[in-house]
Fold each of these.
Amino acid sequence: MAGAFDFVPAIAALPLLAFVVSLFAGQYMPKRGAEAGILATAGSLVLSIWTALTVAGITGSATSYNENLYTWVAGVADGAVTLRLGVLVDPLTALMLVIVSLIALLVHVFSLGYMNDEGETGLPRYYAGLGLFTASMLAFVFSNNLLMAFMFFELVGLCSYLLIGFWFREDGPPSAAKKAFLVTRFGDYFFLIGVVGVFATFGTGLFAPITEGGTVVAESFPQMAEHALEDGESFFGYSAQTWITILGMLVLGGVVGKSAQFPLHTWLPDAMEGPTPVSALIHAATMVAAGVYLVARMYGFYLLSPTALAVIALIGGFTALFAATMGVVKQELKQVLAYSTISQYGYMMLALGSGGYVAAVFHLTTHAIFKALLFLGAGSVIIAMHHNENMWDMGGLKDRMPVTYWTFLSGSLALAGIVPFAGFWSKDEVLFEALIHGFGSTGTLGTMFLVAYAMGLLAVFFTGFYTFRMVYLTFHGDARTDVARDPEPVGWNVKGPLSVLGIGAATVGLINMKPIADLTGLHIDFLHKWLLGPEEGGWPALTSTGLHHYEELMHNVAGIDPAYPLGETTTLLVSALVSLSLALAGVLVARSLYNEPEPVEHTDKLGGAKTLLMHNYYQDEYQVWLAQGVTVPLARAADKFDQGVVDGVVNGISSVSLFTGSRFRRIQSGVVTNYAALMTLSLVLLLVVFVVLGGGV
Amino acid sequence: MAIQTQYFLLLSAAVFCIGVYGILTRRNALVFLMSVELMLNAANINLVAFSFHHGNLTGQVFSLFTMALAAAEVAIGIGIVLVLYRNFEDIDVTKAATMRW
Amino acid sequence: MTTRPRLATDVNYVNGLAALALFAVMGYVFMTSELGMPAGFADGSITASIGYAMFDMLDQAAIEAEGFLVAFIVIALVLDAALDGAVMLARREDDESVVAAITDGGRPLSGRESDGADAETATDDVTGGDD
Amino acid sequence: MPVAGPIEALLAVTLVGALAVFLAPDEWAGKLATAISLVPVAVSAWMYTAFDGAGNALLGGDLAFESTIGWVQLGRYELAYHVGLDGISMPLLLLTTVLTTLALVSSWTPIDERQSQFYGLMLLMEASLIGVFSALDFFMWLVFWEAVLIPMYFLIGVWGGPRRKYAAIKFFVYTNVATLIMFVGFMALVFGLGDSISTFDMPEIAQALRAGGNLSAVAGIQPANLSLIAFTLMFAGFAVKVPVFPVHTWLPDAHVEAPTPVSVMLAGVLLKMGTYALLRFNFTMLREVAEANAAIIVAFGVLSIIYGAMLALAQQDLKRIVAYSSISSMGYVIVGLVAFTPHGFGGATFQMISHGLISGLMFMTVGVIYNETHTRMVGDISGIADRMPWAVGIFVAAAFGYMGLPFMAGFAAEYLIFQGAFASSVIPAAPLVTGVAMFGIVIVAGYLLWAMQRTLFGEYSLATDYDVSRAPVHDVAPLVVLLALVIVLGVRPGLVYQMIQDAVNPLLDTALQGGVALW
């Protein structure tokens, strides 16, 4: 009987079909290809939900699935690895599939309002891009090995490029698209080395072992690494520990690029040049999550390297704070959201780095919902404002577009981390995990976690501040421009997705209310249980991607242990209260500064810091300098060297031969006498040589 | 008592070198032709000498052919000299220094 | 023709040294070589033998030789051709267009243009004189 | 064994076809040549399906479509007409026939004078290329190898750009001198082998060399040094054709001056002759020397990758950009070959095919844009995406293919090369070296994205006096075919990789010892 797992490839195949249909037939369709995309993503959503239900054990017996389906390159000789594409479904995959296909569907619907109703041209191209993106992203999610993940990782990068550059007639979008691809490519370069390295080291890139009737037929690379570590093997002249760290850091390069972490975060704010639904889908909810998802996917590998974990935590914590401070001074709506996205992914990295696997996945889920909501809300505002994104030109939109306002507010509360909205639960858990592991882990690792935690905690305040600065400037006060006084109305296709997500942002946090669970003893931490799996047997035994296994590794290999300085419950409450009060403080400061009919800019009070923040800490400047101030002159110098020296030698050789030729030509005077003399002399010489050599040997 | 072969060779070398000398030092095309004639005859001397040396008449027959060829060569040579004179108003071989004029 | 060919008197003696050197080398070689005494001819008429050799009648020749009939014919033809060539080259200027075409590399020279009729007669003459 | 096999048919059709096209009137020479060239495509496609070879041609594998005809006795050596295909040459042959047809179609627009001669020379070149990839007798191989230069010389020198004479002569002299050097090296081996070979048959020579102990001293040079010298000379000779830094400078000049279809053939097939020969001669016959000198060879490869890419970054001419990036891409082949791993060899050979298709596609696309704009300078064109959407779309796809986008042939090739090189036990510090070589994929993205942004996107403007309109169908059709091939091979590399692997694996069968390092 064909179960849900047999249809998993179709989850990606449907949007791929939509891509082809939109590209070639989109111009003949009434909605220019949107129909295909909506149908396909709806189909994907249904299949994803079915898959999730199967994983939950409701609609089938098997709760996980891991098969190689396609041999991409068969290695014939010994030692030649075989590269395959396959499907891995476990609770993490199922969750992510549902998130991605849900948001993709909503964004497709929203696009009807944002793109079709606005009379854009080139829509088949747009929907084709969305379709290809959705397909690649979903395929990335259910990839069962690292190479397949990389391949689709690159494809989503391509789609990101195509969609950011959708308005190619202007100067900005193509440039931003180029930057986005190039910066992520730089990260992917390290990722690719990592992929090659993993295959060369372990001969496989499987995330989870493949079993047949209970016996393992193909081991996964995290497991092999684990064994190698136990056996004290060495690879390429390094100890297993060092080598695993190196590989982990290399793969992390791709993660940092895609998830827009410091220092490769610079592309994401620029990427806001793309259409807003694209920003919602790609640059907030899904593609940017790919990096974090990848770390979660191969978490069993990262747990073997405490160094890599510390780096992930520090990058995450720093990025969370760093990006949040930049979000404080931005004037464009989408820019604020972009920096907020960077910051929030920083939290997820922080969680992963400090051993908070569930927290990271939880925050990934809630963030996908509320950030997609915020972007779509921003899109709605942008439609209303005739594509003016400057918040200082808005104001007072609250009464004129209530659906947008209330949903946007729901998302903002979630983002700021106000109880009981989604963001509170997840962010609190992230910080809590970092805190207890920081105290519990030994040596520098614990210190690193605490440093990262401190940065993350501080960022909570900024998050609350910039979120509500945005809300107040956009929706409250008096309308500051004519457009804001009379905004363009938005249709059902905008309000529908907003409402769905608005409710989601308020409620999705309920899936894992850990503090409540701990306090009351109720077992309502569903996500935790979802990722934990059954105690004995079931999918964790097959895939070894269960939480139990990770906790063992944390304890045994990485030396990460929880510790509760104030007792378990008190620590939990104090942690939650601290972060909540910081968030509220941020909100209140924003309220006091901007919640007035005619708000004024307060950024001047920051003094020198304002310039620094407005210029994004000169991150773009130094990266542009690296490209234009170092690489381009270097290329020019290489070109000069090539033209002058290398080719100069070639031309020099040819001119030497031309010169000697012109000299030798003078012998050819045309005078018979000279020829005769030369002949005679040569004959004499030849004879003398023969005589000397002893006569014709 | 016949004369040793190398003396014939020496004679032919002398005649040949006189011919070569003429070609090298003179510029007059007619003198060239004469010099070439000398060189051909030096070859003839060689042919006859070796014919005698080996007791085989082939060399002598060949020298006859050579004479015939020399005649042909002179005929053409004189013709060329005439053309040369027509084109350059002179028969100085150093004047005709290009293949095409 | 107001001038006539004269012997060039400005002789280049330096080049002549090459000829002397050649003589020295050849002389040295010849005089140091050990050829031994000549074998000489067998009895019989040398002249008659040459005649037989030329006509491939070696069985009648008194002295050893090889047959040269083909060479003889070839030489005859060459001589004939050479004489024709000499005549052609030596033809007067008036009807020289073909000759000029051969000797000047075909480049038309100003003042030496000849009309088509002349060229044709020249061609006829050349072919006609081929005997 | 039948004497007139499919290879003979290919040679006959192209040669007779070339003659027929030479005699045809200019008006329909292009159509005639294209029609004729479809025959080799069909024949080689049939050959692909009927391919029954196994193993490596030089190392005693079973050859497909083999035929041998004795020719002349040259001293001790017997020269023969000997052709046959193995898993390495079959895909290259297919590449040649397909690319020739597409290049012929893409010539219809830009070639507007002396058509019959142009198309005749193109077919002549196809014949020679087929010969190069199928010949197994050294003498015959050399004849074809040199015969390729002649049509190429005229194609650049007659139909080229303003500096065509310089470029054509440079190309000809450079590659010809290289052949001479290579020839000296090979002859040194032949003399060194002495009595152990009696023909110039490449399999016989290769097996004699691989067997070991057959080389004897020549002119006082000991066998080990002799093979080192021969290796160096042959490497130098073939490196020019590839081209490898620092003997690459003929390439950009030739590409810039050559008309589009000629560039396509030059980048698509002619460069592969160099790497094909390297694989057949240096890395098959003198494996131990190659292994001993792997550090130096891989340095040349890595230098070519990075240096070529850096040069491409500095160019303003679209064709020059692609030309320099070809140097970069061919550097990957060198790295793959010298790794001496299954995927290294296989990936390198696969890269020959994939680069042939992708660079051909790239040059054709640039050509289509040039046909409409009459300029190739990045600064002169902007925003043509509006005017010629399909051509631009394909340009973008081709550029991403060049950058190694997954599911396109370039990614498969490059990934396999990296995989092979990383695990190499021959290259010193293989992971590090591979990592450095891979940086090429970042630079290539840099210059192609930059060029695309400047030329394709933004507001429409053009520095020349032409009006850009949609490219004609016969210009775009070859692009579509090539793009489809690139994607098919990217999704299913096994279509050719299977036979490639079968042919390259015997190269690794026996470990040879005793190579002498250069230092």
Amino acid sequence: MNSRLTKFLPWLVVGLLALFPLMESTFYLQLLTKVLIMAIFAMSLDLLVGYTGLVSFGHAAYFGLAGYALALLAPKYETVSLWWSFPASIAICALFALITGMLVLRTRGIYFIMVTLAFAQMLFFVFHDTKLGGGSDGIYIYAKPTMKLGEMELVNLEKLEQFYWLVLFLMAATYMLLHRVLGSSFGRALLGIKVNEHRMRALGFPVFRYQLASFTLSGALAGIAGYLAAVQYGFVNPEILSWHQSGAVLMMVILGGMGTLHGAVIGAFAFVLLQEVLSNQAWFGIAAKHWQLAMGMLIMLVALYLPQGLAGLMQRFGRKPVAEAADD
Amino acid sequence: MDFAFFLIQLLNGLQYGLLLFLVASGLTLVFGIMGIINLAHGSFYMVGAYLAWSLSSMTDSLVAAILLAVPLTVILGMALERLLFRHLYQRDHLYQVLLTYGLILVFEELRSIIWGDDVHGVAVPALLNASIPLTDNLSYPVYRLAISGVCMLLAAGLYFLIQKTRLGMMIRAGASNRDMVQSLGIDIKLIYTLVFALGVALAAFAGMINAPLSSVTPNMGSQVLIICFVVVVIGGIGSVKGAMAASLMIGLAETFGQVLVPEVAGMIVYVLMAIVLVWRPEGLFGKA
Amino acid sequence: MQKKSTYDRRGFLLGSTAIAGATAAGALLPAGTALAQQGKLKVGLMLPYTGTYAQLGVAITNGFKLAIEERGGKLGGREIEYFTVDDESNPAKAPENVNKLVQRDKVDVVIGTVHSGVVMGMAKVLKESGTLWINPNGGAGAMTGAACAPNFFRTSFSNWQTTHALGKVLKAKGHKNAVFITWKYAAGEEMMEGFKEGFEKEGGKLTKELYVPFPQVEFQALLTEIASIKPDAVVAFFAGGGAAKFLKDYQAAGLKGKIPLYGSGFLTDGVLDAVGDAGEGVETTLHYADGLDTKKDKAFRLAYAKAFKLQPDVYAVQGYDAGQLLAAGLDGVKGNVANKVGVIKAMEAAKIDSPRGTWTLSKAHNPVQDMYLRKVVGKENKVQGVAWKALADPARGCKA
Amino acid sequence: MISNGLPPSPLPEQGGNLGSLRSQAVTGAPILRTRGLTKRFGGLVAVSDVSLDLHVGEVHVVIGPNGAGKSTLTNLLSGDLPPTAGEVMLEGRDIAGLSSDQISRMGVGRSYQKTNIFLPFTVFENARLAAQSRTPHALRVFSQAEGYAEINQRAQAALAAAGLEHRAQRIAATLSHGEQRQLEIAMCLATQPRVLLLDEPLAGMGPHESQRMVELIKKLSADHAIMLIEHDMDAVFALAHRLTVMVNGEVLESGTPAEVRSSPAVQLAYLGGEELLHD
């Protein structure tokens, strides 16, 4: 792949994806919408795992929190404006990430993995055990948020393809944002912290503050995904912040190849697609009943033989070394 | 709550704590000595319980089932270490998380294929099938007390193994300096295989002797998994002492939490964990 | 493809428990094929086939298919084409999973599911799509309450129903106060409400509500509390492994025989093999029981055992009745499923001759059914009589 | 190409502030001083009651056998370890117990005994990150990192000073050991420190490379206060303005090289009577 192509490839992909609603307008469009939402979620986690060297096993907390924020901010039977509910939900996530970040960033390695999990579990039980958000049965968002400019409806979220375009736009925007951020001094410092935290400190970088900023940004971006996921089906349930969800998004990041933004996107596609294919009874018959067996084995194979994920697999066919991936 | 019931709840809490220790002890060993983060620990617990059920229904004796099953789980542990885990020691924890997450799915489905999705019970051994009356309408099952005894024996045994034996010395040295041990001509690979097998066997053993109490059900592994992690992390990774302290702490917190603050009982252990880690980021008995 | 997706009679009679898999149809059918199959009725099964509730999913599937098979594999003169989705009992994926059936496979009717949370997720999507929906288990009150809709039907129970009749039962036994213990989650709380209402109407007093964090199974602390409260009776709801462990712990704590234990029928369903004699004598209410000894029940049990080499349970009955209800609907319109109003009308009017006894639908489309009082005798939930004749869910909040 | 020495003006843009530093000068107050500095690990005393001064314009060499506490001392000064007792004064301000990043930002740079660089990055990026630490621009998340001329210049200059400018685009992991040591120093320089703590910069270097490094340190000593830990006695005596000998965590002797050389205690305890110091 030459560098020119690499540069334009993301735009080409986004362009092609934008055309998708012309071909298919219901199920696969909604599935793709979901994949794109998960791609935002995966990118937000990749910022932590792949670029800051922090393995969070509780990232679903921020995803789910945004969904619940929308559900609780919206009046029960009336529409809520996206203009304030969207930033408000994300601000709540960012704030929660900031607070939890201050605590979890005191720990390292396995402890970090476990403490992030603990905070997610806490939040899980808050929504599962109390009446705050409808308990274990979840809560509905009856009317989708509106996006109006004056009296004009800018985007009608009830319309599947309009919602899809909005999600696609936000996915591309997230990609762009992270791309810029990671190329900035801030991003370089994060990479440095990932590679050699100790040295960064000796060089005079206030490592904790950088990590906290990254953690907060990551939480906020997960919030974008969570908000969109809640809007898509109008339904949130405690399960969206369970450790299974945190595990799933971590799988996406690693499957795609951590430390590459497009890897996170590829991972989200691959993960959802794999589930679709493996559980497809038309193709696998009775074996599809045990599709999770195949899923588990595939995950293990990736862990053993594809440490750089699918993006790494692509890279092996003649691209730059991994360490430079952030330079492009 | 009057004083007598307070004492009984105290007993409940301690007993539950010991039970937690039983499951978590293997995890902390593998964690601390090999630096492996093993999400599939709960699956070994489940495998133990199902083995206890299927073998005890064949042999009509839980003891016989355990005697048969423990060697099987040791072999399982050694095989897994050789085939899978060995390749991940030098890698980031992330890949261990990934691999063991995959293992959970595999074990869960294999369980479904081999043993089905039913709920099963294992009979308490006749000798221990009795209760000690505590109040006019409450009594304490002897089997629970027996398990507590086993837990304490096991704790003592582990402590002895690690602190006093040659194997334990090698294990400790291996934990602190892999290269050094290797240069002394000790086969570190063998030690790791043994430790991992020990960890698997401990988890499975916990599942076995707990089977008569907990009943044998699908997904029982993932229920204990998270709480085990909490125990290990609060106690300090790799510390048997810490695992014991943390288990008892959690046992008491859950017991009194359910009675005194039922509204937030579900999250009480996580709050506890967060507090401990903010106060001591490396756990109660962890090395900095 | 076409051949494979048709209902295969021999495959059915082989009695594979994984029958769902064998008969499912293509997921990615090209448009042309879909047209060619217009003659068939598309039935989407969204049930758990993996995880904790896998067994329930299979039982419901079996029951449903038995009902269809008894009608020659046809409903309203139309052959059936099945589409299957494993919902994994994961509410987070529920809307997406039900969309597979509604949007991708364009099924005429959705059958599902077990988990209440997933039911709630399905409700959201199916309300919008208007697809006919028969729920063969999940008892979330809202489905036939606040979230009810003309196209929503349930052939099982509402959580409220399964414990409401216990109030009368306890009163009749002379218990003046009781403690309720369950998991802290929606189904548990709804069952607690159902009992509380029934018991207080009879002048009883619910002394204390005890909750165990879901899905924990460490009951010792609360059993100790029960012993210190010394209520006249204990009422419990747990299910599956949790129920088995609760029954054993209750016995081991010495409470069995001192404080009588009652419960929602799920406390003792499907776990009696696992608990030894710990369940003996426990009395529960449910819409089904062992030893009903009606002609219909006997025939059903025989046919089910023959087809699947398994004993049926309450879940199989609910699945079976889902098939019967759908049959009634389609018979009413001669198979013209496009006439949705007609189907709904016919289903609303149906009198279902169920193994559990005849039942009809309430306005909110929940069964109005007899609640049996059952008592554990050996490995059976033996019927003791009818605790409440034709109990209807109050369907609070249902405006449809 | 590595052979002869430094480029003429290693750190051009440092000229201004270094001039003012130099005016504090050798004879004035020490820029960094410790008093009673002590570090215990459990029962073990690694550093005990160490007092020493560093002056701009001076190379202060610390020698001692392995395990004498030299590296621990460095760690105490750089903030990698908090001292158990004692004070560390940087220009009159007690910095004991501050974190390493705070101390670094106050102008204390260090290199590590074990090469401690960003192996997967290019040589330039290593130096650039180091330079960036002085002007972090952390909030300008939309400006690309390479866009700051003054940072690039500083990185370039530091590489040039360490003799690595021709390696700028190489991945650090592919450098030779000696070059990695040079990079270590370059990164240290790019942070524009006034105090340099160099922990065995010559370890594992060939004679050629060592020679260059000695030249470099000599050059740097003009406008930096340098604490050097070193085993290579040639280098020690070529560079040292002051010499401190540590044994078992304690200062055995401290003074000019001549004073230390003639100290009987040193002769006896550290050198075991051998004639190692004669050359």
Amino acid sequence: MSTFIIGFDLLLGAGLLWLAWQALFHPKPFAAVVHFMAFGLVMALVWVRLEALDIALAEAAIGTGVTGALLLAALGRLPNGATPRLALRPWQRPPVALALGVVLLLGLWLAWVAWQLPRPGLSAEVTAALPESGVRHPVTAVLLNLRALDTMLELAVMLGAVWLVWSLGPELRPYAPATALPGLPALTRLLHPLFLMVPAYLLWRGSHAPGGAFPAGAVLGAGGVLLLLADAVPWMQRPDRQPLLRLLLSTGLVLFLGLALGGLLLTGTFFAIPVAIAALAILVVEVAAALSIALMLMACYLYGEPGR
Amino acid sequence: MSGFFALLAALLSGLALLGLFRATSLLRRILALNVLASALFLLLVTLAHTEAGLDPVPHAMVLTGIVVAVSTTAAALALILRATHSHHDESDP
Amino acid sequence: MTEGLALIAPWLIAAGVLFFMAGALGLWRFPDVYSRLHALTKADNLGLGLLCLGLACQAASVSAALKILLVWGLVLVASSIGATLMASTALARGLRPRTRRGSRDS
Amino acid sequence: MPPILAAMLLLACATVGLWRIWRGPTSVDRMLGAEQLSTLAIAILLLLGTRLAQPALVDVALLFGLLAAVATATFVTRTWTRLHEAQRRPEEAEGD
């Protein structure tokens, strides 16, 4: 049994190294991107192996799905052709090889140092604080109650990315596909109920099991990207709907801020959620955060400001 | 067992740094940064296995990190697309 | 009834793995894009279907079994429509199907 | 068939997908390789999910299935578009 598990680990590790190597050094950009998508897929299997199911869900939705879609969409717009190989003169080879060796050794040394660090961990503290957090799953408790400030700043970073992308100019209109694709609307219609059902299920599970706002928002965002591909969300481009779109984009952050300030008013501490309302407050914020994350992923996918 | 994954994370981050420095195209640099981020997440989650059980704090950090990584990727890709497009506009007419 | 299901489940899983291997063989050896697409979507979906049926027979509850079958239905929809999309795009982009012996690989 | 043995055999099948992604020759072939890998990952996750009695693994498998569809749809509508059509002969249309 354990031999099987060791073999499984070795195969996963070898696959990861091969995929990373090809993603970084394959001469063709398209092949590199597909290798990177497969890398995300194997990474999700590694998270499962390491019992990090929350991360596996998020990686499956974001690492392979949304990042892959972003990269593929960007590839279609970049001038194609193999990238030039880095040409080295003969005298440059030894110092470059030396530098690469030093970098690899430094990486190994850093990992070794991190491995040797004392690791008491915070699991005992989190378990002790779990009854007062309003949820029963420790990762959700850390994300939305105990270290909620980090999560709020992370939403702010995402909103900043949308701001940057939109400030670069109007939305880049996609080129026409090579042929008429009648299957695409059918695909969207058939998969759409699942793209709504699965995030709701993940949100509901988040309070007591792996799941929660991040995977839910990512899956919803991927569904939104599929809708964008089939041209099924014309309202995002309409100028009169832009205020609504901006409102929805910022809902997650605004509700989070409201929660923090409410905690300040009620208990005197920033982000201290009273135990009595913690479960309800976390649920509301999670729904808003998932919706905002989904819309922000869609907004980034447009590569520019819609309706301009 | 988890020592194996720490070693894997170190090798991956070394590979990613190598790719980052040797890349000649901007898209390849983005891929390298993403691989580097994955390697660091792997190291964090491996370190979360302690004697007292699974530590949820690194897990939460990695979850936020994944979302931050995708938004940085989107922003960087948008910048690259704009850069190549303005270049074409100058050269075409 | 339940014992019968438990008896049949390993055979279904083995048959599923066999179909996966057939799909891999097709992806490896077939000469052009369209035949590889054919081999992969047919064999893999049949393999996944048999495997899901076998696992659903072993599942702890009816809802778990239904969820496993839902995964199969989803993959079936996604990959069959995806195969159509890819094949029609490849045809429109000028990848010619291989028609007789001796013509070049596309 | 014991689930672990089945999972190992499926991992052996995955080498073909890896090779196909690396080799090409066309970009559809590479996407096919990725699709095979995601189907195999779904199968392995379902096997491990029943073997380890971890129902959450089925959710991960469900997400893989959903997002493979998004990747395919992006590929045909955004990557292999008319943009590069005039630039090379159709036989070597690799779309890379």
